[in-house]
Amino acid sequence: MKRKVLLIYTGGTIGMEKDYETGSLRAFDFGNIFEKMPEMRLMECEVFVHPFAKPLDSSDMGPEEWRMIARLIFENYKEYDGFLILHGTDTMSYTASALSFMLKGLTKPVILTGSQLPIGDLRTDAKENLLTSLYYASLYENNEAVIQEVAIYFEYKLLRGNRTLKYSAEYFDAYSSPNYPILGQSGVHLNINKDNLLRNTNKESFYIDEHLSEDVLFWRIFPGMKLNHFKEISQMKVLILQVFGSGTIFSSEKTLETLQQIRNNGTEIVVVSQCISGGISFGKYENSNIFSKIGAISGTDITAESAITKAMHLMDNPNYKGTFAENFSKNICGEISN
């Protein structure tokens, strides 16, 4: 039996081709993808294409587009065995992270991929990314999907979506998962690290939770920063501070006073690290104790992209019991290490 995969094309470099008259890149009609890539007809799965009416640059992707993708998956969940989302690379980690929180009880693969060069370029990475992603999106064993989570496939590596970040705008190997091992790697064979895969242990039925609050602000701390700017953000419900190392910030009475004032205004403060690898550890250094004093939340080893989308999903979400701090500290779908 051939597995059925729904390919959702949102936009991005992967769907571009060069206009040889102008030299500019333009989106091509994804309805003609089988003419552009006849190799797809040789796949051991049936591919059905659903392009966005207007392809979007990934910088234009946001909460409403995340909801659109989640709804498409929900509406077609019973009909298809897997889902492949073609996406621009700049914000793919945000979309993958958001979807990981929104898609509940997932037991089928949701794979995102893109490319650094357009599909029509002679040296493109688009074809390999697309074809291998289709393999992963249709991979079943004993009538059960091997991948049952949101993942990103890029340059021979399958990665947990909410653990990824784009670290290169130059190289084909553009994504990394610094705090979680890879899910799989493609070579002569498609390798899967099954011990690293997520499973729906609660056996809950699939549904979507579209809740996303936009009252979230991300702020990177830097040496010499004037904290009086913080007084202007008192209306934000969540402030994510990206601080130094394992959780340090310049220590002074003014710092404590300002952050405490923000907390007193009802704003939740989440602390994440500027380091790509490793995470937050309150108390490791004296200059991190300030966060314990004000009741800030440790993001541990979460990525910035995942912290932002997790906060958006949790803030004021009536579907979660307990406080924001309690829920943010939980490992919901593999986004932090236990």
Descriptive tags:
22% helix; alpha/beta; 338 residues; Rossmann fold; Asparaginase/glutaminase_AS2; asparaginase; AsnA_fam; 8-stranded mixed beta sheet; 4-stranded parallel beta sheet
Q: Can you walk through the features of this model?
A:
By secondary structure, the protein is of the alpha/beta class. It folds into two domains: 3-208, L-asparaginase, N-terminal domain (Rossmann fold, 3-Layer(aba) Sandwich), CATH 3.40.50.1170; 216-328, Rossmann fold (3-Layer(aba) Sandwich), CATH 3.40.50.40. It has eight helices and 20 strands. The chain has helices at 33-36, 63-75, 92-102, 126-137, 253-264, 289-294, 304-314, 324-328; strands at 3-9, 16-18, 25-27, 45-51, 82-86, 103-104, 110-113, 140-141, 144-145, 150-154, 157-160, 165-166, 175-176, 184-186, 190-192, 207-208, 216-220, 238-243, 268-273, 297-298. α2 (63-75) packs across α3 and α3 (92-102) runs parallel beside α7 (304-314). The protein starts with a strand and ends in a 10-residue tail after the last helix.
